[in-house]
Fold these 3 entries.
Entry 1:
Amino acid sequence: MKTTSRLLHFLRPFSHWVALSTLLGAATIASSIGLLGTSAFLIARSALHPSIADLQVAIVGVRFFGISRALLRYLERLTSHATNFRLLAQLRVWFYRAIEPLAPAQLLDQHSGDLLNRAISDIETLENFYVRAVAPPLTALIVTCGLAAYVGQFSLRLSGVLVGGLLLSGIAVPLLTHKLSQRPGQAWGEAQSNLSSAWLDLLQGLPDLLLFEQASSALERVRQANRRSLFAQQRLVWTGAISNALNTLLTNLTLLIVLLIAIPLVSHGSLDGILLAVLTLITLAGFEAVTPLATAAQFWQSSQAAATRLFEIADRPAVITEPAKPQPVPLDFHLSVRGLTFSYPNSNQPILKDICFDMPQGSHLALVGPSGCGKSTLLSLLLRFWDVPNDTIWLNEQDLRNFSPEELRNHITAALQPPYLFTATLRQNLLLGNPHASETQLWEALHTVALDDWANHLPDRLDTWLGEQGTAISGGEQQRIALARTLLRPSSVLLLDEPTANLDAETERILLQRLPAALTGRSVLWVTHRLTGLEAFDTILVLDQGVIVERGTHTSLLANNGLYARMFTIQRNLLAQTMLQSS
């Protein structure tokens, strides 16, 4: 019931449209009943060869109901689907706004295919919620009350039988259908999610699967997921077939009982014989209002399952707490980290321990250390992807938690690992950093990252398509495009995570020569494993097992002969061996 009430809550802004659509639906079925009833009266009355004047009202009625039925059906479909599309638009916006604060921390346990299935397929499933699950019961209620009042004029017994048949078809059959489709509906939703995940894994990992000769195994997993989806869907179809058969049986049984009661009434003169034909056809037509309710029960169940999956994600608490009264972010960006200790949720092992450093406006800091020592975690905390402990990160002597994360990210830009490129052109990927960047600024950024010559030789230059997530270009080119995009953003602070990791030595040298001009006046936190070009940095922080074990300049750290010096020596020897082998 909680899921249902939450779904119905989304209809509140469109309540007047829902009421209008329901009334139009009831009027459409009433026109169908009126058309069959007046047609039956006209045919039965004509058999008695009356004057044409006696048939004028019935003739006009047939024309009226025939035309109005088509017009009302069109208006009902137009109104109901317009309402439905507005509902879907609201659901999409709501779901995006719900998951945006959760990213990335609260979505790390979600398979991308499953999340995509929730955002697209589950919301599309709710397309049936209003048109086929909410409106039909309301329409059936109005029509049943109207039929009961009309037939009750001739006989309360007839009215009772007709209402009883409608109630059985409109309540008992849908309840049975709901019961039978409950498990298949849930299984189908899960199967669709698994199928989407399996397909996404196959498509995105196809090169590696082919390389390791595992493509057939992955394809078999897709086939198995597809079979489970088809089986669940088939069970839903069987349930629908059973409900249709029961509705047909109830319709004919109700008609038979109506005739058994009405024929003696005609024989005794209590009911005009012409009305016998009318009662017969309006009985059949009346079931048009309740027959869709069995299907509505199926769609209700699938809508409940889809909504449950959406609410399961949307109800997750946000990791980041928004301040009640956000402070304006100062222009003088002096960042301080004091005694920062951090552990991931459900873990007792601190990733960072008592981290302390200052980064004044315009300073350049390098953060180095072995893999897994907490460098990327520190960047995530500075970006507010995870919530920071109180009084540990300060901005101009104010707790970082006092600032809006969105406003803070307008002043802090990062190039993280792995770099992500959108399936778009080179220009569109660059403009993500600054939508208002001029052509000159785009080329300057490409020049800084040593990609201007490469871009000039592309088929369409800046308008060249980069392929699915940039797969048409190399890893080093992807990384430099992401770096250029970061440089285009007019931010006070740049957080650069392994910006030269995929580059050859010559390209790295050129990039390091050109970068300082683009970084002038900006604060930079440079995270790297490669100890190249760090001579120009104001301070180098050496992180090991979550603790800053050394700090200083490149020269002073080499003189200390500590971890930094050992890492530098190892890398220099490896580079010398590589150059020797290549020569």
Note: The mean pLDDT is 84.
Entry 2:
Amino acid sequence: MKEELRRENLEEILTEEESKEAGMRYQDADIDSDILRAVKEMGFETMSPIQERAIPVLLEGRDIIGQAQTGTGKTAAFGIPMIQRVEPSLRRLQAIVLCPTRELAIQAAEEIRKLAKYKQGIKVLPVYGGQDITRQIRSLAQGVQIVVGTPGRVMDHMRRHTIKTGEIKMIVLDEADEMLNMGFREDIETILADMPAERQMALFFSTMPEPILRITHEYQTDAEYIRVTPKEITVAAIKQAYYRIGKKDKMEALCRLLDYYQPVRSLIFCNTKRMVDEMAEILKDRGYQAEGLHGDLSQHQRDMVMNAFRTGRCGILIATDVAARGIDVNGVDAVFNYDVPEDIEYYVHRIGRTGRAGKAGRSFTLVCGREIFKIHEIERICHTKIRERKLPSPKDITRVKCGKIFSEAVEIMEQKDLQNLKEAILKAVEENEFTLLDLAAAFMMMKVGEEPEEIREEQFSVGQRRSPKQREEKEGRSIKSRRGDETHYGDGRRHSDRRKSERKNAERRNSARKKSF
């Protein structure tokens, strides 16, 4: 009941008309009926932009270069043609998908399994580091048509000859730019060099660094470039806002927003691993259920954090952009950009975590100083509007917290027998000089805490003009400051008077020297 109330509160705040343009229908493409049955069961009716452009090309057997972010449906974009190309009766490896992280490999394998549900005989296996390799070897020996794995573990199996590439029909590099950033370039090139000459290849990525261009030139043939622009992938259901905050007040502002909107599940993005760790500790100390995720965590630690987030034991996940790759958790109510992302593509990637499947979502960005220029650049390139908002006031925070406590109290009154407690309270009121209202207010303060202090938001963005009065006040302060600097020396004289005196003394000394000669 508490989660439902919190969701209703968030959805009330996020009231917005949903707009959704219908795309191409799956049945209008040349897709097998068994796959269409699975797609319908998964609840999909029309294709996303990347699916609409990539599926027909891949079904023709051509290579593609696809630029799109996670959350745009690209797993189905390559998964559907891949399943259609696989021969179920041939119990040998026929397709490989390479992913940068264990989480993304598991997620992609699960998605492909769902799409292949009614294609009898097709087996999909994720292979990745951190899992006992002998278990994977046994599964491969039983006959697997599709492998989804990380480059390092796929290389291990190739060296052991437990993965044989002789009958590969299709290979996909998912999040290829991240694999290169993580140092998998040599592994990728070794894997690609071992592929049959007659095979199909698809690359998907968010940004296009130079090494990707070299891979496409060397290992693809007449590949079609498909780019889903930020305009196409901006989700209409996401309400975007930014707040201009002094750097020292960012943490307090973040907590203010968490307390006011009370998202059940939220993601906070930082640009550095160190900031992720610091924020996780600070939020835990303040009573929030928060965990951090970044590349320095062991696989066991990553699994524990993600399980806690998925199951709801942890309502706040703090992550870097690279560590968040492959995270696909339903029901993320809000995304917080504690740091403005360095890359504009990352902004789209971040906010795409919320507002999925037509549900309401919200993104908050904390902006300091010159970062306002980055916000304007994001608006221009992504064809979106990020509205400037004022932080909730201390009274707003108190009101929301009280509302939450009242809801919890009503639930307890409906479910529990409070007779003994009522008698104890009445006795306390009779024995002391206070009223029931005084007692209730004291109990409420124990739960709510002191009213937070005001946070002074940044008054001016860089380059913003001041009013004539503000300029006059600033200039007046500067003149006064300069005068104050020169007003007094050690003996009470002005700097200018002292300089005049020093010049006269120097002239007298020079005159005396001349006379002595």
Note: Confidence is low (pLDDT under 50) at residues 1-22, 460-496, 512-517.
Entry 3:
Amino acid sequence: MTNRLSQEISPYLRQHRDNPVDWFPWGAEAFALAQATGKPILLSVGYSACHWCHVMAHECFEDAETASLMNQLFVNIKVDREERPDVDAIYMDAVQAMTGRGGWPMTVFLTPDAKPFYGGTYFPKPTFIQLMNAITDAWLNRRDDIENNIAALMESLSRTSRITSNANNKVDAEPELIGPQHLNAAVEQMHQSFDAEWGGFGSAPKFPSTMNLDLLLRIYLDNPNPELLLILTTSLDAMASGGMYDHLGGGFARYSVDAQWLVPHFEKMLYDQALLARVYLHAGVALNQPRWLQIASETIDYVLRDLCHPDGGFFCAQDADSVDEQGHSVEGHFYVWSKQQVLDALPKDLHEVALEWYEVTEAGNFDGANILSRLHHRGDLLRSPQVERARELLLQTRNTRSWPGLDDKVLTEWNGMMLATLAEAAALLKRPDWLAAAVKNGEFLINQLCAESGSTTIKRSWHQDGDPQAQHAALAVDLAQLVDGLTRLAEATGQASWITHAKTIADKLLSNYWDTENGGVFTTPHDGEQLIVRQKDVMDNATPSANSTAAFALYRLAGLTGEERFAHHADQISQLLLNIAASAPTAFGNLLSAAHLRHRGVVEIVITGNRPDLVTQLHSQWLPTVVSAWGERYDSPIWHDRKDDLAYVCRQYACMAPAHDAKTFDQALRIALQSTPG
């Protein structure tokens, strides 16, 4: 007997279709029942790769006693936070306001009109049963207390929609943008929180902070500074040397539970691969570090091997848990090794090599087992032929184990993010196979998630279980990441159609999500579902925010198309978020990188005709303030009146003399990049 979740496309929701809980998906049917019966709503939010979500599901939602009480007392709604981050963000803000902390699984109690009044995260069965009885008692006997709590929460939940720009308060004054002083404040804050011993920022648990590292790299390239280089080198080497990095199969786990980056939370998310491969790519190319390029390459290869649909879409994640030899679901079991398992997988001539390289001991470093790492040889990552042979054999053996669960839905936002990384990496590292994969992904996104015309038909989520299905109206961050990914695909391929798609999607973003009163993009479209508040996604957390991504993508699109309206909207985002970014600059790393681009000024490059030599030269270096066009022409000032077989280097479409050869091209580029902003 299955519940309503059997009709959903989300693998996470479908994992709960056999629960004895009478689950509803988020939607009108559940709220109508709550209104009719007067029952409160129990909202449970999680995601497929979440270890503690699976633990609570086993202890509570698969348990007949607990499920019976849930069905008796509440209308129960299950949400996949990756499909509905708009819903998740509202109620996570509520939980954090109530408890001072957040996380998943998230459990929130709502009124029949969807207003939250109590919540938390993981609850074991005895605590959960006590909580449900206490909530019911309050609902029946202390409704005034609940209403008071709701009033305070609703005020907190709407705060992002009330942010206003300084420009609204100034008359005849040039609006202030996020500028160098805010970048300097972010650098100072990162200096203060930098872990000089193990890299990264703050103490355990440690997250990669990819956007802040990428920002530091941009600032370092402007003005090389040994202190910034130390932060970058220590952090990138430490993350890639610990167990958070998969030394056999490539790719990164989501975060490290310790300060040394040794013990990961073993789930592997697509967005982390996109962001980490990007920063290792940028740093590897800019600072000429082959070991970082190896990490970027292996991470991309992991995605293309293990997270790729045959038609080109990228899957969301692999779980932390897998089934052990006794049939139990165990976190990290797929990845860890005993010393004997390593020896059994290898010929004798590789025993000593592998044990030493991967720091394997009899005692182990994780619950009696070994997480393979280079923790005590930090930064020594380039493998000898013998080590490489051992790695391949260990990977072959590992692949015979029971695999972690795969969340094989495709999200527009995360795919746009991975597309941008993949296209950039294909060009910089001269990988035509990656470029072909990037084109295939771009075609997948356009054909499967943007297939119909109209303002709201772009979808956020796609899954193939029999017939492929796309559902859930796209959020602002989906469109912003699409614009960024498609423009970078245009730059990597020289194909004009990707610019056309990017402009169309940018227009939809600005027409259907833009706040005409205060600036910035709302999370949800004007004609979308009306939630209890309409928020704006402003902070860069594990993924870049909708507003920072939009600002970045719009600045670059303006440079490629000559349409200043795109840059004007990006400026309005900078104005809107200036004060809160100034108060907590390291929470806005991606936005500050967009501000860095604006401050330094976009340099436009166009290479006309058939000049593969100049295109190759262009793609031999990471140029964070450059936008480029080559190959097929399209309607833009970047192409107007350009003669064939030349390289044009311009700032705001004021160009230097066209370059006929590599030497003059390089000279023009250096002058443009070093010129004073403004």
Note: The chain has a mean pLDDT of 95.
